[in-house]
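Exercise 4. Each item below gives a protein and its sequence. For each, produce the structure-token representation.

Item: Ribonuclease 3 (Streptococcus pantholopis).
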Amino acid sequence: MQELERQLLADFNICFSDSSLLETAFTHTSYANEHRLLNISHNERLEFLGDAVLQLLISQYLFSRYPKKAEGELSKRRSMIVREESLAGFSRQCGFERFVKLGKGEEKSGGRNRDTILGDLFEAFLGALFLDQGLETVSTFLDQVMIPQVEKGNFERVKDYKTGLQELLQTQGDVLIDYRVVAESGPAHNKCFEVAIFVNEKEISRGSGKSKKLAEQAAAKEALNRFQ
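Answer:
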């Protein structure tokens, strides 16, 4: 954690008063479960809090930035910014993937680069930062990390993988594309869905996400990667 603390200070001028909050934010459930006797806290509760803080600050930014946009357009823009894949990208931008504590199984399966884990990690960090230093500091951090990307219009070009997959498959004639939820895991406030895509009743790919829509997009992205 000391290296992470040095990086946060150098890159963002952030110094945690309560280092245990930072450590909890970077502790995945798989690590905590493998060390149950040590009674280690994991980051799910901080993720829950960070998600709420992020939604508030991005909503406030969009409300001020686009005074003539309707509610539906603002909601669409917000969903593009705070979606799992985007948040994972911000974690990578900050170098957070190097510091997350994972269980051995999760580490071996490539969890350190998984969008679900890195997106949750970013939200957990925001939750920890909010508890340690308040809303203004979180807002300043987002102004450094997220807002410049928004201003560049990067999130106005987010791909709709489902539409892309449909267009690709239909070049081969009429096909039946069916998205099915095949698994759910996690507590009620932090569900993870796994969706499988069936084309003419044959499974072609799977994807996971914090909502059914995100899982569908992840599955469609995986299918496109295979076909292209």
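Check: The CA atoms of residues 97 and 112 lie 6 Å apart.
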